[in-house]
Design brief:
Blueprint lengths: L8 E6 L3 H12 L3 E6 L2 H11 L3 E5 L7 H11 L4 E7 L3 H9 L4 E5 L3 H14 L1
Parallel strand pairs: 1-2, 1-3, 3-4, 4-5
């Protein structure tokens, strides 16, 4: 649901690979989203609490606090926020575990940006 001048919503992208968060940020900003980035699970929690995004795009495999840990923490802080997991092709069992823990869905890497945007739009429009 776009409100002011094509603004579609707030998204947080969390991945330990900075180039991935930057690609997501550029793609979504060009389509009217406000996008925040974080490059660790711990930073993702901090940005989440400060910026209150509607959707989080979250990598599963990160050093330190991994995506499943972040998902659990976010669910405690705000059960209404929607999380879309990013996963390498061989991590689909982890992605399914993430869905069991409350994630909305997952996208495999390399990221199909059209599919990712579709999932984000579905969740923002549903709220």
């Amino acid at each position: 649901m776009a409100d002011q001048a094509g603004f579609k919503g707030r998204v947080l992208a969390v991945d330990d690979e900075e180039h991935i968060t930057e690609v997501i940020k550029l793609h979504l900003e060009n389509r009217g989203y406000e996008v925040f980035t974080a490059n660790s699970g711990e930073e993702g929690i901090e940005v989440f609490q400060a910026k209150k995004p509607q959707v989080i795009v979250l990598d599963i495999m990160m050093p330190g606090m991994n995506g499943l840990d972040v998902l659990k923490k976010v669910a405690q802080l705000d059960p209404a926020v929607d999380v879309i997991m990013l996963t390498a092709l061989d991590d689909t069992m982890l992605a399914l575990e993430a869905i069991r823990l409350g994630a909305y869905g997952y996208v495999t890497k390399p990221i199909n940006m059209g599919r990712l945007e579709e999932l984000i739009a579905e969740k923002i429009e549903a709220n």
